Amino acid sequence: MQESYDVVVVGAGPGGSSTARSAAEHGAEVLLLEKRSEIGAPKRCGEGLSVRALAELGIEAHPRWCVNGIWGAKIVAPGGKSLEVRYPEQVGWVIERKMFDKHLALLAARAGAEVRARCEVVGVLKQGSRVTGVVVESGGERFEVEAKVVVAADGVESKVARWAGINSLHRLEDVDSAYQYEMVVELEDSDMLELYFGNSIAPRGYVWVFPKGEDVANVGIGIGGNVSQGTAKAYLDRWIANSRYRGGSVIEVNAGAVPVGAPLEKLVGDGIMLVGDAAHQVNAIHGGGVFEATFAGRIAGRVAAEAVRQGDASERFLSRYAEEWRSLRGEALARIYRLRRAVEKLSDDDLNYLAEVLEPEDVVAFANGERLGKLAKILMRKPHLILAAKELM
Amino acid sequence: MPRRVDRNACLSCGGCAGVCPSLAIRLEYGYRVVVDAGRCTDCGLCTVFCPAGAIQEA
Ligand SMILES: Cc1cc2nc3c(=O)[nH]c(=O)nc-3n(C[C@H](O)[C@H](O)[C@H](O)COP(=O)(O)OP(=O)(O)OC[C@H]3O[C@@H](n4cnc5c(N)ncnc54)[C@H](O)[C@@H]3O)c2cc1C
Ligand code: SF4
Ligand code: SF4
Prior knowledge:
The complex is a heterodimer of chains A (393) and B (58). With 393 residues, chain A is an alpha/beta fold. Chain A has three domains: 4-44 and 98-170 and 261-332, FAD/NAD(P)-binding domain, CATH 3.50.50; 69-90 and 172-258, D-Amino Acid Oxidase, Chain A, domain 2 (2-Layer Sandwich), CATH 3.30.9.10; 338-390, no CATH class. Helix content of chain A is 33%, strand content 29%. Chain A has eleven helices and 18 strands. In chain A, the strands form three sheets. In chain A, strands 1, 2, 8, 9, 10, 11, 17 and 18 form an eight-stranded mixed beta sheet that branches. A seven-stranded mixed beta sheet of chain A has the order 6-5-13-14-15-12-16, with helices on one face. Chain A has a three-stranded antiparallel beta sheet with strand order 3-7-4. In chain A, helix 1 runs parallel beside helix 3. The longest helix of chain A has 29 residues, at 315-343. Chain B has a two-stranded antiparallel sheet. Chain B has a two-stranded antiparallel ribbon with strand order 2-3. Chain B is of the alpha+beta class and 58 residues long. The interface between A and B is medium-sized, with 36 and 24 residues. Residues 10-16, 33-36, 44-49, 120-121, 153-157, 178, 180, 220, 256-258, 276-278, 282, 287-291, 293 of chain A line the site of flavin-adenine dinucleotide (FAD). Residues 3, 20, 22, 24-25, 35, 40-46 of chain B line the site of one iron/sulfur cluster.
């Protein structure tokens, strides 16, 4: 490791690896630091990723981590009504995140970035309000590394940005508590995702069954910790005990935090950029963030390299990243956040009503922030839902 | 009183560190949760958040 780099990226999740790769490809000297000893493990993910997302990221599907093809979804309302949509072609993958995250780190290394696992960033260096590097702890030693640009891609913990003075705290009402078992189970359809909704099943969230193969699936839950009567684990155990998956063998246990708030307004400062979960760049409805982090990282890495080339890592220059990202993704994510605020106001009866009047394709479109006008109109039909509808306008 | 972590229940998800307004929680090397008693204001948010019920009043 050197004493100084053009760009230091903190966190080798999809966001950080993608940033490091892109910055290196655009000519910067890059250091990517990850505190865990194994990149990608333990996983904190349901591992669903759409075919469209992979294509848009320009990443080739690899059999080492694309473990199961998905052709549709079953969405189950609290009353039991199931909306099913099966597409004529494969639309998604369930991936092996441990392999995927390592693969992205490998691509960063191949592009020329220096990657270091088991190196924890414990503070940032500053001159006035300007970030000039990081403090690293590794193998009991503590040392400083200077950087023209520091990228905070440290996920949901999001401490690097806060040390730098940017308020990236995850408010409890905007982060879901998640628990998950990877289980050996008997699946009805191993190429369909299953999603279960209901305020008693999963307040503010849902239960998911994402098949990873013929007889194995991620069975997980996300709930709003502040609006629930117990832990995510307790809710999930209760749901499984009443489901067809009761008694399945457990081959992995995971917990997680899913940001479901609006993307941060402030994505850059002098000498610092925020990417991925650290920047609250997630789909607030389904909690998916792998695509968002990877996509944002590509822009951030390119802008960081440009800033280095031009010798200007000021907030003003780095704002190019924020502006480009906002026009490509930020507006859609802000719409999806408003949808989450609306859905949160619905009772189980309301959800059952929606399951009667909606087409399954509508639900998929809503989750992508599309057709929200249609949803608003349907909600407006019920006087007690006008407030919810207003969130969408 | 600061918070106490049940290491048998904790799954190193990092969420408690993300919701702690006081930057009092460190997930050492990504695995081991350490609460800085000097920074903790005992607000309880980490406990409300924890999906595993692993972080409690000391
Ligand atoms: C239970 C659960 C299910 C989910 N399911 C899905 C899904 O099905 N599909 C989907 O697309 N998304 C899903 N998500 C969301 C997705 O996992 C995240 O949005 C995604 O991982 C964000 O990527 P990231 O690179 O921003 O952060 P992360 O992947 O969290 O990476 C951050 C990295 O930074 C490291 N780090 C943190 N602090 C430091 C430090 N101080 N020094 C060095 N390194 C540090 C961490 O160890 C970590 O490796 C799920 C999340 C959870 C919790
Ligand atoms: S929130 Fe709970 S499970 Fe997650 S790291 Fe903190 S103590 Fe461990
Ligand atoms: S009680 Fe509050 S201040 Fe203390 S560690 Fe938990 S979240 Fe942080």
